Amino acid sequence: MNDSSPPICIIGAGRMGEGMAVAFSYAGFSVTLIDLKQRLAGDAEIYCHEVRSSLEAELLSLQSLGLLTSNQLKRVNQRIQICSRETAKPHFARAELIFEAVPEVLDIKRSCFAWLSEQCSPDAIIASTTSTFLVTQLAEFVSNPRRFVNAHWLNPAMFMPLVEISRSATTSEHVVQRLSSMLRKIGKVPVVCAPVAGYIVPRLQALVMNEAARMVEEGLATAEEIDTAVNVGFGLRFSVLGLLEFIDWGGGDTLFYGSKYLVEQLSPRFTSPSIIAEHMHSHRNGMRDGQGFYNYDGVNLSQYKKQRLEQYIQRLELMGKMPVFEASSES
Ligand SMILES: NC(=O)C1=CN([C@@H]2O[C@H](COP(=O)(O)OP(=O)(O)OC[C@H]3O[C@@H](n4cnc5c(N)ncnc54)[C@H](O)[C@@H]3O)[C@@H](O)[C@H]2O)C=CC1
Ligand SMILES: O=C(O)[C@@H](O)C(=O)[C@H](O)[C@@H](O)CO
């Protein structure tokens, strides 16, 4: 957190690299942002200047949002060093945490990890920001794969709390714990998942984003109507309740029957997974049965529902969408 703490190194100074650099520096960490691309003489320096200008514009925008004073802006800016691959070596000497954020092209990832394996210490943690590549596949490009893990940030990196960590069987537990603890220090919420394409969020959002696009294609509603339905319905609900938590609220059986009808009317892609039918057969439909995806034994349900409703109210107030008492009497 202070000048003596090892710098965080980030390879790739594009959208995600810059966003992650600002997130760490804002929280007080020193960061080295490294542009790995091979460039003609002189071009590397020009690119680093461009990255600095882009960072400064980002920081000015945070200042205009009231998140930084001008003194704090200077400090955040100074904590970020920008360098090219030619000048990167000394920055790795003390680095214990290195993020990779080069383009989503397998060959570029491969050469980045080969280069990185030569530059940094063998036990420095290496975390890839990849949106799609499996951790097991990328780990093959890294020397000492025990220190390798995927850490998928969401865009915009400065503000989205979630970072999805995907580990392989080889990734050491220490690496997952150390990375999670660093992320928590800067206010992020790490969630660990198995080596799987699409992690949790990209897998979920690919389905709903494709379905939204399909509804436009089918002429069922306009883009504005669908997005309004998401903002004040789907998104609002799931900012309070988890998806599985809501299955327990509404009942797994309701989801099962509803999905069956959608399969008949729309497409087999709405088929429920077998876990929903298994839950029905074992009377685990959710809150009403006392168990579902969660166990409600010993849970004070009215207290729990009240807490969730309070969270809804906070959001409704922010959105200016609170129900108005006796609205009918207003002229
Ligand atoms: N853009 C997004 O919304 C998100 C992206 N990601 C992942 O983050 C990673 C980085 O994505 P972005 O920041 O969007 O990419 P970007 O294109 O904005 O930045 C990539 C950086 O790598 C440099 N670069 C380009 N070609 C190169 C090469 N041949 N060798 C080395 N460096 C090269 C670019 O100059 C730039 O500094 C990808 O793996 C992507 O899947 C993850 C979450 C969200
Ligand atoms: O949710 C996110 O921020 C990311 O998972 C993405 O949206 C993907 O990387 C996307 O930008 C790729 O098209």
Automatic annotation (TrEMBL):
Residues 8-193 form the 3-hydroxyacyl-CoA dehydrogenase NAD binding domain. GO terms for molecular function: L-gulonate 3-dehydrogenase activity; NAD+ binding. Its main location: cytoplasm. The keyword Magnesium does not apply. Residues 198-296 form the 3-hydroxyacyl-CoA dehydrogenase C-terminal domain. The record marks H152 as: Important for catalytic activity. It comes from the Bacteria. Keywords: Cytoplasm, NAD, Oxidoreductase, Phosphoprotein. GO terms for biological process: fatty acid metabolic process. One of its GO terms (cellular component) is cytoplasm. Its EC number is 1.1.1.45. PANTHER family: 3-HYDROXYACYL-COA DEHYDROGENASE FAMILY PROTEIN, LAMBDA-CRYSTALLIN HOMOLOG. Belongs to the 3-hydroxyacyl-CoA dehydrogenase family. This is L-gulonate 3-dehydrogenase. It comes from Pseudomonas reinekei.
